[in-house]
C-alpha cells in the first residue's frame, strides 16, 4: 500500500481526484435540480439548497484553516468544490433566470455553431472580474510560490525575488482558491474559444487551440508523475486535472459522445463509479501521515 505514496503514483492519485471534481461537479448540480427543483423560476427551492451547499463549503475551508498541510489541502479542495457548485454555478443560473438571459434556441441562430446555455452567458460576463482578481491576487502577488504566476514574473521582468521563507501559508484557503480560479479560468477560456471559433471560419482555430491545450494537459500529467508528497501532489493534481478535463469534455460538446455526468439517473453506474473513485482517492490521500513541508515546485496556485 505504501507504494501508492511514492513517485509517480502519488501524483497520479492527486490528478485523478482533481480530474473527477469536474464531472462530479456537474453531477452534483443535476442532483440538486432533481431533488429541489429545476431552477426555472427565481423562487425555485434549488437556490436555497445551493446557498446552503456553498455555506457548507465555507465551513469546510474554515475547519481546514486550523489543520496541518495535508488535511488542510484536501479539506480546502472539498470546500472550494462545494463553493463553486453552490455559489458560482447556481448564482449564474439564478441571475440568468431572473433577467431572462437568452441562450439555446432563443438566441439568434449561429450557423453550424454552438450556442451556450443562459447561465454560461452570465459566466462569460464575469471575465473582467476574474482577470482583475487574477492580476491582483496572482500576478501582483510577489510572495506567491505558484509556478504559473512566477513564470510571468520572470518573463515580464517583475524581479520579485524569492518569497519570504517564513511566510505562513494557509493551505486550505490556497487550495480552495485554486479550485475556484482554475475552474473559473477554464470555463471562461473554452466559452470564448467556442464563441469566436464557431463564428465565421474559426473552426480550424478551435481545433488548433484544442490540440495545444491537450499538449499542455499532457505536460501537466508528466509533472504530476514527478510529485513526491501527497499534499503537494493533490494541489498540483487539482489544476492539472481541471485542465485535462477541458480536453476530455470539449469533444462531447460537439457531439462526439454523450455527457454522462449530466444524466445521473440515466447513467447511475458511471456516476457511482466516478464518485467511488473520488472518495477512494481522497481517503487514500487523507490517511497518508503528514510530512514536513519541503521546498517544492508543486503548487500551481
Q: Any overview of this molecule?
A:
The protein has 301 residues and is mostly helical. The chain has a domain at 13-101 and 167-286. The chain has helices spanning 9-36, 46-64, 69-98, 118-124, 127-139, 147-155, 171-197, 203-224, 230-253, 268-286. α4 (118-124) crosses α7 (171-197). The longest helix is centred in the N-terminal third of the chain and has 30 residues, at 69-98.
Which descriptors apply to this entry?
301 residues; mainly alpha; 10 helices; globular; disordered C terminus
Task: Please outline what is shown here.
With 301 residues, the protein is an all-alpha fold.
Instruction: Tell me roughly what share of residues is in helical segments.
Output: 55-70%
The share of residues in extended strands comes to: under 5%
Number of strands: 0
Instruction: Give the SSE order as H and E letters.
Output: HHHHHHHHHH
**What characterizes the major β-sheet?**
none
Briefly note the structural class of the backbone.
Answer: mainly alpha
Outline the fold blueprint.
Elements: H1 9-36, H2 46-64, H3 69-98, H4 118-124, H5 127-139, H6 147-155, H7 171-197, H8 203-224, H9 230-253, H10 268-286
Amino acid at each position: 500500500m505504501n507504494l501508492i505514496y511514492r513517485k509517480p503514483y502519488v501524483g497520479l492519485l492527486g490528478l485523478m481526484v482533481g480530474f473527477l471534481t469536474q464531472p462530479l461537479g456537474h453531477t452534483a448540480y443535476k442532483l440538486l435540480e432533481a431533488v429541489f427543483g429545476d431552477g426555472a423560476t427565481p423562487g425555485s427551492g434549488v437556490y436555497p439548497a445551493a446557498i446552503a451547499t456553498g455555506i457548507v463549503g465555507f465551513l469546510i475551508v474554515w475547519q481546514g484553516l486550523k489543520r496541518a498541510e495535508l488535511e488542510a489541502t484536501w479539506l480546502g479542495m472539498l470546500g472550494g468544490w462545494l463553493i463553486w457548485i453552490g455559489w458560482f454555478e447556481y448564482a449564474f443560473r439564478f441571475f440568468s433566470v431572473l433577467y431572462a438571459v437568452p441562450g439555446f434556441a432563443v438566441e439568434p441562430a449561429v450557423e453550424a455553431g454552438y450556442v451556450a446555455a443562459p447561465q454560461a452567458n452570465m459566466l462569460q460576463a464575469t471575465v473582467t472580474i476574474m482577470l482583475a482578481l487574477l492580476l491582483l491576487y496572482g500576478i501582483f502577488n510577489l510572495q506567491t510560490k505558484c509556478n504559473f504566476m512566477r513564470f510571468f514574473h520572470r518573463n515580464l521582468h517583475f524581479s520579485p525575488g524569492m518569497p519570504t521563507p517564513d511566510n505562513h501559508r494557509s493551505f486550505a484557503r490556497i487550495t480552495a482558491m485554486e479550485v475556484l480560479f482554475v475552474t473559473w479560468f477554464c470555463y471562461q477560456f473554452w466559452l470564448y474559444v467556442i464563441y469566436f471559433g464557431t463564428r465565421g471560419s474559426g473552426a480550424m482555430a478551435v481545433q488548433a487551440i484544442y490540440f495545444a491545450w491537450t499538449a499542455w494537459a499532457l505536460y501537466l500529467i508528466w509533472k504530476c508523475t514527478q510529485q513526491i508528497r501527497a499534499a503537494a501532489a493533490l494541489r498540483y493534481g487539482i489544476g492539472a486535472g481541471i485542465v485535462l478535463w477541458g480536453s476530455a469534455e470539449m469533444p462531447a460538446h460537439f457531439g462526439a459522445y454523450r455527457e454522462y455526468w449530466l444524466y445521473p439517473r440515466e447513467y447511475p453506474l458511471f456516476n457511482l463509479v466516478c464518485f467511488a473513485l473520488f472518495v477512494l482517492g481522497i481517503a487514500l490521500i487523507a490517511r497518508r501521515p503528514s510530512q514536513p513541508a519541503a521546498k517544492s515546485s508543486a503548487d500551481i496556485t
